[in-house]
Amino acid sequence: MKRVRCLWVIGWLCLPLIALAKPPAPPAVVLDPAQQQWLDEHRGLRVGLVLQAPYAQFDRRLQQFYGANVELVGALSQALGLDLTWRGFADQAALEHALQAGEIDFAPGLMQTPTSLRLWLFSDPYMRVPQLVVGMRSGAVAVELEKLNANDRVAVRMPGTLADYLRGNYGNLNLQGVPDEREALQLVLGGQASFAVLDEAQLSRLSREGEFADLAVVGDIGLPQLLRVGSRRDWPMLADILERALQVLPAKTLEQMHQRWLQPRYPRFSESAGFWQNLALLFGLLLLCALATLAWQRRQQRGLERGLLAARESLVERQVREEALRLSQFSIDQSTVGILWVNWDSHVRYANHAAERMLGFAEGALLELPLVVIEPNLKMDRWLELWKRARTGDGGEQQFESQCRRADGSLFPVELSLSFLRFRDAEYLVVFLADVTERRRDLAALRESEARLKGIAGNVPGLVFRLERDPAEGDPEFPYISEGSEALVGYTPAAIQHPQMGLRNLVHPEDRADYHRVQDLALASDRDWSWQGRILTRQGEQRWADIKATTRRLADGRMVWDGVVWDITQGKQAELALAGSQEQLRELSAHLESVREEEKARIAREVHDELGQMLTVLKLEVSMCELAFAELDPALNERLASMKRLIAQLFQLVRDVATALRPPILDAGIASAIEWQARRFEARTQIPCLVQVPDNLPPLSDAKAIGLFRILQEALTNVMRHAQAHTVQIELVHEAGQLRMTVIDDGVGFAMEAARPTSFGLVGVRERVLMHGGSMSLDSEPGEGTSLSVAIPLKQEKQS
């Protein structure tokens, strides 16, 4: 069974009910006798409508259709005298399904496509619906899509033919897909898109809403929708009749229909945001006038209020003082620091709750007790001496640590602070008690941790240091150097900590500038730093060292660097030996490559010259035999012709072998050789090659020219085998004393992380580049093609 993709179908209606007022009757349609006879026999026709505003809609309350296409069909019905039956469909697919089922005869508002031509007979276009570019009304100017950049987002409905058109013709556009036109306009209003593209019909429907009053049309993309009337293909007579009826419709009628239904209309002035802003501004001015009047009235009242305020101020001030006194008393009582008020005779006159809890006494039990009960070392003589110092302000800060006795007789460490106080014609010495038991425990733990750290640092096979900046002068200093310095460089920690020494003077003179740069940059930016280089021991011995330091910020805001100096002499010597060995191997490989190329060139010359001469003589001898004896025997003539063909094939084989060993085109320069190789690649693979080489190239040695040519051959071989490319681009550029060759294809590409590290083709290319002191870069992504770029320096070239 055929599936009908229709969301809902409106049932048959007996009579067409048109919501809008009917336009004036169009002129009569002149038909030939055959058409008139057919029309008289088929007055009752069935019309299909795709329900899409503003082309066609259905009013459920009035049970009638209305819209641009409904008005057009009404005009055709009047001109032809038709008796129409109307039917609505949710989408184009449902309409075409009904056509195939024979349920409708014609439909307005269709667009001609290759697919729809198999189902309908179309009339000429009767209405043009442009595709418009919409932007913000403020500062709106004409927009050209070709000049938009990637920062200008364009909202468009996706999927759809409009989006496909924009993507195919304007590759520079940054398209943002949306499900419908309303959301596209909302993105423009919200600033998430710069412009929106939609057809004029949808814009006319949405522009009547106040939400979109700030939008304006800023351009036309040049792809209008051409609306046509489609009819059944098995009734060509109906198509001709409808075409004649459309031709007699006045252009003014169609224009009025376009303006009535499809012309964008914006809300009335009262519906726009500017109207309400101006109205709000007017109300604001009226409010300011009212406030000014109110201020004048209040000024008259201030004179009366001043007297009342003066009376209140004295009362409020007294209440504030009392409240402050209560708050002070409460804060003292609830303080976590023990507070004692002691008279000159060392008897306690006041103790807060913290002091009572700290000393283990009940509430009020400390009052009138002598201070010697709490602090056994404060005899009367010492107390009077402290009293005198505090009262006269001599002796500096009265703060010291001691031990206090609790009510149960146990002792605990405290920090005592003394402050002199006069209160209500009486003198007191305020004693602040702070329990330092935890502080001493933490200090002991800190000392133990420092001792453990020094032990660990002393056993590290290297030098451990701590670097700080002097807050006053900003110069670096080393507050800590581990004992491993003597084993590493022969200097004691104290010698390295000296301001004139430091780590800088241990660095080899040739490496000192680099060390200063790294350390100064780290100190200036408060970052970690790492450096490798040579250092000198006290005995003048040269060693390789790896210095690493990490930064951290102390509680007081100072930055410090904790670091280690490792002895990497053995590893560095092995690394240098390995690098030297690799360099020797590379030089050997370059020499072997040069010898091989020279041998290839020699063999190519011998093959070309020797075999070529022999084949030439052989060809002459065969030709002489053909002239002398061919007429005597037809079989001999045929045998001699076969020998000449074999000789010609041998000639071509000799040329191919000589060219493969060393192409003669290399003698004409690397540019000509690249062009020649590209054309050979095109002829062999049918893949177009775009070659760009400069007109004037600097002199290039034969070794480097051959190296570039072999790299190009390897790159094109990889393209042919793996890339599945459609085009290849080869570019040769002379820049900054280098000759750079780039080979780019648009093939399948590959993931760089998945590339085989033992790919001998790439290894060979890399080694060829390194032989000549150049560099290579390879870039590829799946589906994005591959780019190979090699650069060879020209500074060592000599004019031959």
TrEMBL record:
Cofactor(s) named in the record: [4Fe-4S] cluster
Stretches that traverse the bilayer: 275-296
The EC number(s) this enzyme carries: 2.7.13.3
Annotated PAS domain residues: 449-526
Location, primary (coarse class): cytoplasm
Annotated stretches, region: Disordered: 774-800
Name the UniProt record assigns to this protein: Oxygen sensor histidine kinase NreB
Database matches in PROSITE patterns: HIS_KIN, PAC, PAS
Domain Histidine kinase span(s) in chain numbering: 602-796
Function: Member of the two-component regulatory system NreB/NreC involved in the control of dissimilatory nitrate/nitrite reduction in response to oxygen. NreB functions as a direct oxygen sensor histidine kinase which is autophosphorylated, in the absence of oxygen, probably at the conserved histidine residue, and transfers its phosphate group probably to a conserved aspartate residue of NreC. NreB/NreC activates the expression of the nitrate (narGHJI) and nitrite (nir) reductase operons, as well as the putative nitrate transporter gene narT.
Species whose genome carries this gene: Pseudomonas soli
Listed GO CC annotations: cytoplasm; membrane
